[in-house]
């Protein structure tokens, strides 16, 4: 028995990178949904199997490719007839095109979701920020997804220096993956401060470990930050609310 | 392509009742797992599709049975070759036997997990608590799963009165389902206080909405509480750590 029709909404979360970021996205989907009872919530199936080769190491040429495991996960989600697939891991978007080609269900790109969120914010102001600070892995920075989209808004991107990556971003990110949110948050808070000091008017937290870590240390920079995981959650909720054939 | 062998651990979460309780269980599985990197975490697939008829209403005879939707969810999880199924909703355990019969993967009962947790706590003390306060839905209270297990430890059960159910438990629980954790937490805190006033030495929070709500109001009764969702998370982690064939 299958309780849904093929055109119904069922959000597939390709998660586990890390599992905390998966839970964080699911929590944000709940927070962003207007509900009065359980049944109003977005239907989600989350594949959170963290035994995927490290994405940062693969892109640095020091580890195996995660692509076979990612393709397997996409296959499993499609077996459940998901309507859309989202990936709460920016770095994994390096393999986005390869996954989208193999998936029956369309994938929603986290940078597209972020740009929608940023564009809505900008619409309410006189103009786009002239400089946007981008906190992301080497892989995400090198891919250029965010920088290209920011340029389309007329905004320049401020990225961390190589030294900031080595001393603040990378150790901060791996501290979060070990569950040490306070330690990770303190390092990432210092990185946010550096970008603001260099003129960033907004920050885009384009690694899904960053927003939970800054929240853990109650960072004052959250107020000027765009959280791509929340933007992705909002995209999922919009799909659900606009669906005429809810379950 | 399937990335796991049939004997590998993959925890299937039959969730969505409500979705917050599902996220809460996933968060607790993460917290309870000793890790140094993403890949050490428990592999989980969560079916969080909240379009399941209300369990409390079904048991009260005022709503449709959730069994067809629950069976469909069990079927979907089995299609992904999960090794175990857990249900982060106490009331849904009313249909546990019917689901277990139809499932290839074994189901872990939340009251068994709770008893294991309670037995470990008791082992470290001189004797079992003489009175355990049980916060649960009418359906869970009527089923007797917890009371029978507490009696096996030599502990009596203190349940809320019918008036406390109507004025504190039910409105508190539905407030959480609407996302109003502060309001729900305040009501459930008062219920916890009543049970302690009547002599409960420990509280078992046998409705998965209760622990997150008490946490939201920083309830002082959390220190004497057993959270069945955390006990269930610990069971999942033990399965994972004892597996010789991790992914």
Automatic annotation (TrEMBL), chains A, B:
- Pfam families given for it? Asp_Glu_race
What UniProt keywords are attached to this protein's entry?
Isomerase
Does the record bear Cell inner membrane in its keywords?
no
Name one molecular function that GO assigns to this entry: amino-acid racemase activity
UniProt-listed SUPFAM superfamilies: Aspartate/glutamate racemase
**Record has ATP-binding as a keyword:** no
* Database matches in InterPro entries: Asp/Glu/hydantoin_racemase, Asp/Glu_race, Asp_race
Highest rank taxon of the organism = Bacteria
Q: Which residues cross the membrane?
A: none
* Similarity remark: Belongs to the aspartate/glutamate racemases family.
The protein, known as: Aspartate/glutamate racemase family protein
Q: Which species does this protein come from?
A: Brenneria rubrifaciens
Q: What is the lineage of its organism?
A: Bacteria, Pseudomonadati, Pseudomonadota, Gammaproteobacteria, Enterobacterales
């Amino acid at each position: 028995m299958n309780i849904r029709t093929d055109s119904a909404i069922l959000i597939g979360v390709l998660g586990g990178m890390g599992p905390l970021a998966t839970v964080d996205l699911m929590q944000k989907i709940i927070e962003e949904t207007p509900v009065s009872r359980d049944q109003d919530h977005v239907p989600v199936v989350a594949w959170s199997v963290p035994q995927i080769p490290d994405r940062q190491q693969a892109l640095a040429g020091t580890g195996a490719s995660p692509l076979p495991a990612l393709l397997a996960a996409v296959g499993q989600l499609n077996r459940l007839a998901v309507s859309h697939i989202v990936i709460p891991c920016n770095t994994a978007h390096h393999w986005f095109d390869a996954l989208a080609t193999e998936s029956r269900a369309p994938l929603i790109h986290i940078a597209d979701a972020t740009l929608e969120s940023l564009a809505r914010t900008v619409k309410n102001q006189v103009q786009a920020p002239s400089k946007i600070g981008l906190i992301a892995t080497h892989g995400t920075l090198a891919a250029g997804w965010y920088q290209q989209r920011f340029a389309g808004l007329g905004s320049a991107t401020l990225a961390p220096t190589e030294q900031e990556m080595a001393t603040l971003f990378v150790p901060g990110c791996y501290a979060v993956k070990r569950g040490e949110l306070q330690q990770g948050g303190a390092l990432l808070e210092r990185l946010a401060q550096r970008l603001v000091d260099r003129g960033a008017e907004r920050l885009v937290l384009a690694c899904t470990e960053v927003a939970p870590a800054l929240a853990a240390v109650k960072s004052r920079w959250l107020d000027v930050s765009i959280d791509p995981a929340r933007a992705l959650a909002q995209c999922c909720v919009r799909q659900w609310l606009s669906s005429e054939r809810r379950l």
